[in-house]
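Task: sequence design from structure.
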């Protein structure tokens, strides 16, 4: 299995991994894109629109769809505590400290991209369920032919920034064919920050490319006084460290450059 790159293919370095310095927004011609749909205005906006149509591996942004699938199927719930099965997924030197906690809840597993748990849950649920749900969601290229515990990490599943936004719109309007309780239970897991002006629901994702560079995502929704804004940002970087340090700030700076108010 191609899991050497898993260290860097997770959403890894979680939502808190951004340094304090200012980061410039994505601009035309850079190796990045932002696809934005503002619902009240009924308006799409793009930075580097051609790249916004290109499909890439979703990496850990797939945890949005995957967590919905796992909740809907009863594989997980919001009250249980979970442990990694170390017989199936032995601890590795590169595992993060947050992964080594003796148990996790669903919120921590989502926020910290605890890959061994998601691999475990996905393998237990099985390929047939993913084939059904991914088709039901019309998620990306709908190809789950890669390893059942890692097809979203570059093996087969691909999605564009535009398709990420379309999926999020279906999620928000409860058009994915799921129980009302699934949407309700996932919402606080998805929420990352809020203030008096706005709420941000989002997930990181990222992985290494064959040429040694890194590609990362930040996708989600901003709810503010102007309504709901759905976004998908991706970028390339010369290392995963550089990517992890900048992707969230660059995504949020890009949203602000298009006049979307984001929470502090």
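Answer:
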């Amino acid at each position: 299995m191609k899991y050497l790159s898993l260290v860097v293919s997770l959403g890894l370095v979680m939502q808190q991994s951004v340094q304090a310095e200012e980061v410039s927004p994505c601009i035309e011609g850079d190796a990045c894109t932002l696809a934005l749909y503002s619902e009240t205005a009924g308006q799409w906006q793009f930075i580097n629109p051609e790249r916004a149509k290109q499909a890439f591996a979703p990496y850990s942004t797939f945890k949005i769809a995957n967590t919905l699938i796992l909740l809907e199927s009863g594989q997980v719930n919001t009250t249980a505590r979970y442990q990694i099965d170390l017989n199936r997924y032995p601890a590795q030197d590169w595992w993060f400290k947050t992964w080594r906690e003796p148990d996790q809840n669903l919120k921590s597993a989502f926020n910290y991209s605890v890959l061994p748990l998601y691999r475990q849950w996905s393998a237990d649920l099985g390929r047939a369920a993913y084939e059904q749900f991914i088709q039901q969601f019309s998620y990306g290229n709908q190809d789950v032919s890669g390893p059942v515990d890692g097809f979203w990490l570059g093996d087969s599943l691909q999605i564009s920034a535009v398709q990420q936004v379309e999926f999020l719109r279906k999620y928000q309007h409860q058009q994915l064919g799921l129980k009302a309780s699934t949407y309700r239970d996932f919402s606080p897991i998805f929420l990352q920050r809020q203030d008096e002006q706005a709420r941000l629901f989002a997930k990181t994702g990222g992985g290494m490319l064959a040429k040694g560079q890194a590609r990362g995502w930040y996708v989600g929704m901003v709810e503010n006084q102007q309504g709901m804004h759905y976004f998908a940002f991706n970028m390339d970087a010369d290392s995963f460290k550089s990517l992890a340090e900048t992707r969230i700030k660059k995504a949020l700076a890009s949203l602000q450059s298009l006049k979307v108010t984001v929470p502090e």
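The helical segments are 49-52, 62-73, 106-111, 115-125, 127-137, 161-172, 180-190, 240-257.
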